[in-house]
Amino acid sequence: MAACSAAGPVPIRMNEDACDFCRMTISDSRFGGEAVTATGRRHTFDSIECLVSWSRTASAKDTRALYVIDTQHPGSFVAADSAGFLKAGFMKSPMGRGLVAFASPQRAEEQRAMLGGTVMTWRELLADTTQTTAPGAP
Amino acid sequence: MKRRLLLAGFVAALAAKAPPLHAADLVVGPHAPYATIAQALTAARRGDRVVITAGLYREATLVVRTPHITIEGRDWPVLDGESLRTVLIIAADSVTVRGLVLEHTGVSNLDDRAGIRAEDVRGCIIEHNRLRDNLFGIYIQRSADCIVRDNEVEAHGASQTTSGNGIHMWYSPGTRVERNRVSGQRDGIYFEFSPGGVTTDNVSEHSQRYGLHFMFSDSCRYERNVFRDNTSGVAVMYSRGVVISHNRFERAWGSGAYGLLLKEILGAEIRGNTFSHNSIGLYLEGAVRMKVSDNDFVQNGWAAKVLANADENQFTGNRFSGNAFDVGTNSRTATSTFDGNWWDAYRGYDLNRDGIGDVPFHPVRLFALIVEKHPAALVLLRSPLVAVLDAAERVLPVLTPEALVDHHPQMRPRP
After folding, report:
1. Does residue B127 have a pLDDT over 60?
2. B356 - beta bridge partners?
3. Distances from the Cα of B31 to the Cα of B27, B53, B101, B139, B218, angstroms
4. Which of A1, A12, A13, A15 to mutate to test the interface with B (most CBs of B within 10 A)?
5. Do A10 and A2 form a contact (C-beta atoms < 8 A)?
6. In which band, very low, low, confident or very high, does the pLDDT at B359 lie, cut at 50, 70 and 90?
7. pLDDT tier, B398 (very low <50, low <70, confident <90, very high otherwise)
8. Would you call A27 an interface residue with chain B, using a CB distance cutoff of 8 Å?
């Protein structure tokens, strides 16, 4: 495991690492995120949806850092706080809510101008209770 | 006489209204009336049949816009995407596509390229096609009541990191997926937001992730399919009212691999299936009111894992043999019940010869609880210490979950 690594995210291993919220094996490098706890334990997620849902659970209370995949650079992370998010139904994210992350809110805004959808920050995502991973249409 | 006239009129009216069967055959080929498939598709009228003769066709993405037509290959014509594009899009209702080879969509991060994509249509039939080396094989998107049957879908061998799914349903209710063979894709068959589907008699194997995967798809049936050698097994999530019967879940080995993973499922029937040679045969997390009956659990690491949040599940008439552990759990207060199953690990007796063991069986070994907390302890599986622990626990079951008891263990496996 990567538990003993220094600060910072560790790359997600496609088709090997599982999502710590929905249990799915992670297979799409355009989506996902990672949480590092105070003790250095690493949690991987297949989607922004699952990272948000997990961040609301008790397991997340000693989180030191949260990272999300920059969808324009599959496999590479940015800090969740500085990322920009786009919510758009046509984005086929692993949990189906159409949530993707970009390196910055500006980048997300550029995409929104072309494709549509709604730009959000990490704080807004956490506050928006409709974002949870749950059955039903988005 | 009057009546006959009336009847004739009625028939004439019907004939005028219904689409004529095979109004015309539009033949495509090097020496045929149509040189390209695109020309024939443009010329086709409702009811026509576009017949594509053998050959290699490299055309821009083909879009079928005329309803009620059939596109049929004769002697397996090959439609090549040249690693650049989706090959064929169905964009009209009641279109049938059969007998084609569709290959080489190439990989893209931006669009989900597919051999055949159905978009916003009803009643398409996709049958007897061969899909090779495509990102997605068959992609049914926002379409209703389509049938996908007797197709062969085979992924490209090289790039493991970027692969799409074999047969993919997205917001497509009532899809029937029958007798297909899917191999080497990311997920073999995937239903997302697609309720009311029927999936029968398929073989899905060597998937990079799941043989079958569905999420947010209520009231679906999965019967007589074979899922084997899929990297992570089969995963079924966030759905209600599902029937899973007479399937085979085989050889899902590794951490995070499950014969059948059930997560947040409400009220499913899991009946007559075989779970063999999996790390974990059946995994229940947040799965409530499952009826698990008449299944065979053979030579798995764990036959079944029932987590604390999996409530009111009933295991009856199942057969457990050759598993390292029959049942695992992370809770001492499970509300799932086991009754009338056959366990090869049962050491009890039957003095009144009614076929039911006279002493109850505790399927959760004490050692399984230890392993649940300390996975590294698994190396002691065959040690004498663990054998002593098991024997002590059989005599005096104080630590294993009290609810997880089979009071009617069968002396013989029920046929």
Report:
1. yes
2. B410
3. 9, 10, 20, 32, 50
4. A15
5. yes
6. very high
7. low
8. yes
Q: The tokens of B413 are what?
A: 């496996």
Mean pLDDT along residues B109-119: 91
> Does the pLDDT at position B15 exceed 80?
no
Burial category of B316 from C-beta neighbours within 10 Å (exposed 0-12, middle 13-18, buried 19 and up): middle
What local confidence, expressed as pLDDT, does residue B32 receive? 95
Contact A135 B216 (CB under 8 A): yes
Residues B164, B166, B171: CA angle, nearest 5 degrees: 85
What secondary structure does DSSP assign to B167-189, as a single string?
EEEES-TT-EEES-EEESSSSSE
Q: Which residues of A76-112 are buried (b: 16+ CB within 10 A; e: fewer)?
A: ebbebeebbbbbbeebbbbbbbbbbbbbebebbebbb
B139 neighbourhood in chain A, CB within 8 Å:
none
> Predicted confidence band at B399 (pLDDT cuts at 50, 70, 90)?
low
Contact status of A57 with chain B (Cβ, < 8 Å): no
- Percent of the residues in chain B that have a pLDDT greater than 70, as a whole number: 91
* Lowest pLDDT segment from A64-68, A89-93, B92-96: A89-93
Q: Which residues does chain A have within 8 Å of residue B135's beta carbon, measured at their own beta carbons?
A: none
Q: How much is the average pLDDT of B163-175?
A: 95
Q: Between A14, A23, A137, which is nearest B285 by CB?
A: A23
Q: What separation in angstroms does the CA of B259 have from each of A136, B80, B274, B276, B278? A: 26, 36, 9, 8, 6
Q: Both ends of chain B: CA-CA distance in Å?
A: 64
- Those residues of chain B whose CB sits closer than 8 Å to some CB in chain A are 109, 112, 160-162, 170-171, 186-187, 192-193, 208-210, 215-216, 218, 231-232, 235, 237-240, 256, 261, 263-264, 285
Q: Which residue has the higher pLDDT, B405 or B156?
A: B405
Which among B108, B109, B185 is the top mutation candidate for probing chain A, defined by the most A β-carbons within 10 Å of its own β-carbon? B109
Cβ–Cβ < 8 Å for B339, B314: yes
Cβ separation of A23 and B210 shorter than 8 Å?
no
User: Hey, what amino acid is at A25?
Assistant: T
Q: Residue A47: its chain B contacts at CB < 8 A?
A: none
Domains plus CATH for chain B?
A: 20-231 (2.160.20.10), 255-415 (no CATH)
Helix (H) or strand (E) holding B28: strand B25-28
pLDDT at A135: 42
Please report the number of interchain residue pairs, chain A to chain B, with beta-carbon separation below 8 angstroms.
54
| Interval B267-308: pLDDT, tens | 999 999 999 999 999 999 999 999 999 999 999 999 999 987
Question: What is the average per-residue pLDDT within A27-45?
Answer: 93
pLDDT of residue B239: 93
Q: What is the CA radius of gyration of chain A?
A: 14
Alpha helix ranges (H) inside chain A? 48-55, 105-115, 122-127
A138: which residues sit within 8 A by CB, 6+ positions away? A89, A96, A97, A98
Number of H helices, E strands in chain A: 3, 7
